[in-house]
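Quality-control log, excerpt.
Job 1 of 2 completed; input and output follow.
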Amino acid sequence: MRLTLVRKQSFGELARALDAGEVDLAVVRSNVMPRQGLTVAVLHELPVVFVVVGKARLNSLADLRRHRVGVLRGTPENLELLDSLLRLAGIDPAQVTKVPLEPETLAAAIDHKQVDAIMPLAPLQGAGRARLLALADRVGHSKLRVFGVDEGEALVESDPAMEAVELPRGALIGNPPLPAEGLPTLAVTQRLVARMQLPVSVVNDVTRLLFTSRMALAADVPSAKSIEAPQTDTGEGLAAALPLHPGAAGYFSGDQNRFFDRYGDLVYVGAMALTGLFSGVGALISYLLARQRRNAARFTDQLLGLLGRARQAPDEPALQAVERDTDDLLALAFGRLSSGAIGSEQFDTFATLNGSVQEAIARRARQLGHERAAAQAEALAQRSSAPGSA
């Protein structure tokens, strides 16, 4: 499998690139998810902690009022995350001064007392941990304190893109341990996501290669050890808000293993004794496959209708309505795939046709843009040629 790396400046740009079809896979954060992206794997867990340096009496989010918080990697996403946490906790973000920091400016900000606390928002392995150790060596381990988000369990109900976690003793620094005891807080996750339209078989292969190569990758990138499978209980919470791609779900559930590859001999030996049973099973399978074909045919007919509407859309509002209906139909197809109402092969056919609809929408959008520009040019020419025009 060959991958082409596409670099972007922020998680938001990555999410928009995937929605626009510029990329097939993207590394994003759970609080900045693309509309067209489904989870393949969790790459890192990013706990929300606040490191206090000095004598400031800060022990909770509420204590941050009228104080300065240094946000490491002060990207718009990180600053917005802090504002979201403050709002969820009932605190006006305007009452907290946010100071964007980069790793190279962190030491100077501490030396010049520019911040009262720091929100590192980094994985517990690798460079994030090394920065905390360097900071402790600089100011003294005894002068570092840390607090989390005590209201984590309640805030998760308001924002399912986050999850409640508890950092174990010494999770940030081992000796002396920081935190000194278990620390409840919130976390966001950094995820590998795939476009909804990416074929199930391709995502299945990507997932298999990623998880079977973790230890080899960790030799060069230690944080690869933290790559893990997402939650698969789709009933509620994070798993419901950030669903799995069917290709990844197939790998985690083992559905890619073929039954007859493993138990072919046993089936052969017992075939004569279980002829009647197999006949019934065969009839049931035939019925289910026929139902899948009927459901897939209905989706195909609807997509063909959308394709015709896209090609003949008279204006941009009509074309936008086609795009909305296409997105709704794609979401419905994913639901039918998860429930077994359609099979993966039928869904691949659907996804291919859906790509044709998307191309038709883009092509018609360009045509409408050209027509609008031509109409404007013609109107301008008529005004210029009218009697009395300068």
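Job 2 of 2 completed; input and output follow.
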Amino acid sequence: MRKYFGTDGIRGKANLFPMTPDLAMKLGQAAATIFRRGEKKHKIVIGKDTRISSYMFEYAIASGICSMGVDVVLVGVLPTPAISFITRSLRADAGIVISASHNPYYDNGIKFFSSDGYKLPDELELEMERFIDEDKAVLEAVVGRVTRIETAIGRYVEFAKSSFDKNYDLSGLKIVVDCANGAMYKVAPMAFAELGADVAVINDKPNGYNINDGCGAIHPETVAKKVIEVGADLGIAFDGDGDRAIFVDEYGVIVDGDYILGICGKFMKEKGLLNQNTLVATVMSNLGFERSLNKIGINIIRCDVGDRYVIEQMKAFGLNLGGEQSGHIIFSDYNTTGDGLITALQLLKVIVTTGKKLSELQSFISVYPQVLKNASVSKKVPIDDLKNTSKLIKEFSDQLGKDGRVFVRYSGTENKIRVMVEGTDYDKIDYIANSIITTAVKEIKNRGDV
């Protein structure tokens, strides 16, 4: 079991364990040791989001890397998928992103890309944890140097734009873009404007404290309001590190990752571009979404929550589309990780080439009512060890049968238990979700863990 890493790197409150400068330095030392390839001069790329604490961690990690004789390339504020691209582009040994994604400013996180731009498998994260706990760092006589490149934003914008059909542009489209006061605040408006869109930008003035604050992908109602106000064709809301996006149509209706997967999957299938007419979705994706795609000849492979698990399944089956309901979408023909900007460009490609509005494109998907409930816990007791909760889950699952699902898990980035229930009757699934989460919290508390 991993000690520091969750489903997407290490995350927590900045300056409190495990998100301390000391651990960040040790992570830098571990990365410098583990990711070296060949006999060439070694280098690791570091990027960050707009949190006030990102500067502190940037220098701490860089110090650890340099102490092991490896060079550091700082690219400043850039979206997570841009770090994946730049790591590959610079032939670096690894890439590091300092970000807590959609979390508030007072949290931060550290996640890694290997030289090929993919997130790390569990085995490598465990190896890094062992390196830290066993204090394996052996300092080099010759230290590494730190350099900064100023062209990373432009390079990434051109890379993302290359995924958009050169025979088309975005002229005539009015788009509202919510940058979440995060890592997309320069990149996204630049890309859309260069392709000819009429862009209305909101939440593009980060101050270190306002990232994700009432805006971005976790608050799509903000961009929805602006779409109605200015009469836009659609709205795009990124999260703090830009690896996912949520959309709203011309009526201000929220369009999540399931719909985007469905729209783009259908388009790719019709063009003969969807590998094996199959895509990957997580266990959280709606059952109605799956059945809607099955009706048009698209198969779904399910996996655990987390875009790296989506990618693992995509690689295993040779697929080129996968993603999460939360808006992490992977178009592996273009990038190796969830990329909010490329997702937006692929959706816009469908809109432009078909001439259809977003509301029309999504109409073939019929989703089931779905209820999500969360509760904080101080310790993640295995669900199977919660006998009353497990019994209740089985009873309700049997009641729902083939027309519904119950899914209970712990968050990979927070101390929270999450319950998802879907079915054909909203009142019934709401009752089920409340019953399960109340029972789980009570049972954990009685064990002395809350």
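Post-run check on job 2. The longest strand covers residues 107-114.
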